[in-house]
Queue: 2 jobs
Job 1
Amino acid sequence: MKEIVKDVYHVGDSGCSVFLVNTKSDDGLVLIDCGMSLNMIKRISKYNLNPLDIKHCIITHFHIDHIAICAELKEFNKKIKYYAHELDADAIEEPGYEKETAASWYGVRYTPVKLERRLTGKKEILKFGSYEFQCLHIPGHTPGSIAILLELSDPKVKILFGQDLHGPIIPGVSDYDNYQESLKLVRDLEADILCEGHFGIFQPASKVKEYINQYIK
Ligand SMILES: [Zn+2]
Ligand SMILES: [Zn+2]
């Protein structure tokens, strides 16, 4: 667990990197993906954050390393609400997508969960407390992948949660041309900090750009 900027945390890595924002409001704590270990999430209590205060979890895409513990987390904390893009929603809400989610490849049994809301279109804003989570559709890695942009005023930084910007391109699931277009879209956001799903946290803006550019052909 590490604070990236005030009230924005890297919870840890289990399958993917899991990030958390403390909205200090009735909307409580917001997770970006939940990964594969409930114990890791429970450990936020060591940092004076109550895992039962997690009210929302924005899912960046349907891969199992990002969603494995959704049902377990919901069992532990009934208040949590999930959000994902409509084009990835069926695989999260319904059984029978073990191949697409890579659950079968990981040897993990996935229990579907209901979404509070299916995000649609190119951009939707989820407002929790005073935070506006800009959910940007970045198809390619999966059809309904999203990146999440937070523009903070104190400190004044743009944080981009771009979970699987590295890919990979998976036959039958990914679309290479869309992926390339999406990479350009996120690069041009000129974020100051990039929280990636598997390769760490990049800053300042020049490092973010450099990281994303390496995947653009
Ligand atoms: Zn993925
Ligand atoms: Zn991933």
Job 2
Amino acid sequence: MTILGSSSALPTSDRYPTAQVLNMPGRLFLIDCGEGTQIQLRRLKIGFGRIKHIFISHLHGDHYYGLIGLISTLNLLGLKTDIHIYSPSELKELIQPQLNFIKGETKINLIFHPLNFKRKEKIYSDKRVEVFSFPVKHSISTCGFLFKETEKQPNIIKAVIPQYNIPIAKIKEIKAGAGFITENGETIPNSKLTTPPPQPRSYAFCTDTAYHEPIAEIVKDVDLLYHEATFIEELRDFATKTKHSTATDAARIAKLANVKKLIIGHFSARYNDASVFVNEAQTVFKNTVAAKEGKTYKI
Ligand SMILES: [Zn+2]
Ligand SMILES: [Zn+2]
């Protein structure tokens, strides 16, 4: 997961508004698209022609003002492709008037998928990954996103194929859990033929949101959680009023959800140094880091 922008509503000279790219095998998912997203993609040499799915959490400008610029560039590059946008339903009417003024024929085909703000919902799946949206608690309708690799099949131990003379046609069954009967009638249990698959990995994105405990249930045990931390505790009243979280709030959710690692971001422009957020969060949840433009976090 690569951070393109870690700022809240006001960008600073070294922080861009929210945007991230999640690189799962063969797929690039763009999560939020704040102003400057396409410049960050260029700077980081991320081939944005590969982005076919864009997830927009909510319609505050710092989360989607980069979209029209990105679409316009893709169009100028002559890309002829479908792009799926998962967002609040109103995005289409907001962006359509601008699309109408793009010169010539638009070759990008935008397909809008409205988000559900009432409950968790599966919004995308293919054979390797599932994506869910879930409501969070902000001043307007907002969703978080959960990306999960699908369960993988066990790996067959290569040496057993010649050892027991296993025909290729049987391998699919064995991977699905079957044992094998040899030519001499000996039954070999599945456990002797396969090794367990790697654990499926997961990533959750939660911004913008106030402290909201139901999130912890949904993001339970994820490998990596991005949770906003716009303020620190000294501005608790302001966080409550604007429906944002403090670094402590983010850490409490991470702890409650038993996640492996927490990344905090969406920092208020009034703080130059993100270490104040990290120091505060680490008093509750040790494995916390601050989001940083251009940095990639392995899951
Ligand atoms: Zn925001
Ligand atoms: Zn917001």
